[in-house]
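*Target chain*
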Amino acid sequence: MVDYSEWIFFISAIFATYIWRFAGVIISHRIEANHPAFEWFTCLAYGIIASLVARTLIIPSGIMAEIPLWQRLIPMLFAFIGFYMFGKRLL
């Protein structure tokens, strides 16, 4: 007898993923891109990324914890200086 449970699981996962993508395509024409909610979510995402990077550099775990703090902070300082020298452009 052939066991189809893996295929059923696989097809179900595909369906569960693509149904939301299809729904997004259908309702995306009604969403305005410059809505204040999107600006808030963008700020939230940048804040979360910045806090995770800062935590990784200032309070690291694992092998990164063996590197002295001053050797982690000096590249951060150079990155901030470069960011402001080039007019606050990321690229």
